[in-house]
Amino acid sequence: MSTIKQGDKLPDATVYEGKPDHAVKIRDVFKGKKGVLFGVPGAFTPGCSKTHLPGFVSDYDKLTKAGAQVIACTSVNDAFVMAAWGEQNGADGKVMMLADQQQELAKGMGLVLDAEGMLGTKRSKRYSAVIDDNTVTHLNVEPDGSGLSCSLAGTVLKQLQES
């Protein structure tokens, strides 16, 4: 699968929020809404926990003022882990913590990271995207799949302000 690009629709993927039996269609999350979707290689990993998720939580007011109606984080982890990670980082009511348990979203977006050597399995590349009614208007994929050079909250904030 090729990487999703600007102008493409989100895939028809199922993710999970809070617990493994609470399935959510990613297209339902962004249907009729403008927002931010960002993916990380793993909950509780250093870059994701120190910089990536906390940036979106702390910039929540700025992002919503710039037009984001929903902010969602996804990772190839289980729903319990994502919920606990969100709670630890104060994401409740700000960032939806969505578990991509079967890599359905990462595969559908063409953003799978081969992290078997480091994290034991394939994961999601680190990325951020502005989504408008299920259409990708901006996409920022880290060149190495995991670094922190272009997918942070500040980049998406500027893109929201421009659109």
Automatic annotation (TrEMBL):
Please name the InterPro entries in this protein's record.
Answer: PRX5-like, Redoxin, Thioredoxin-like_sf, Thioredoxin_domain
Q: Does the entry feature the keyword Cell membrane, yes or no?
A: no
Q: Can you provide one Gene Ontology molecular function annotated for this UniProt record?
A: thioredoxin peroxidase activity
Q: So what EC number does this one have?
A: 1.11.1.25
Catalytic activity from the UniProt record: [glutaredoxin]-dithiol + a hydroperoxide = [glutaredoxin]-disulfide + an alcohol + H2O
Annotated active site: C48
Q: Which domain of life is it from?
A: Eukaryota
Q: What is one Pfam family matched by this protein? A: Redoxin
Q: What class of enzyme is it?
A: oxidoreductase
> GO CC annotations?
mitochondrion; peroxisome
Gene Ontology biological process terms from the UniProt entry: cell redox homeostasis; cellular response to oxidative stress; hydrogen peroxide catabolic process
Which residue ranges does the record assign to the Thioredoxin domain?
4-162
Going by the UniProt record, its keywords in alphabetical order are:
Antioxidant, Oxidoreductase, Peroxidase, Redox-active center
Q: Which family does it belong to?
A: Belongs to the peroxiredoxin family. Prx5 subfamily.
Its job:
Thiol-specific peroxidase that catalyzes the reduction of hydrogen peroxide and organic hydroperoxides to water and alcohols, respectively. Plays a role in cell protection against oxidative stress by detoxifying peroxides.
Return the protein name.
Glutaredoxin-dependent peroxiredoxin
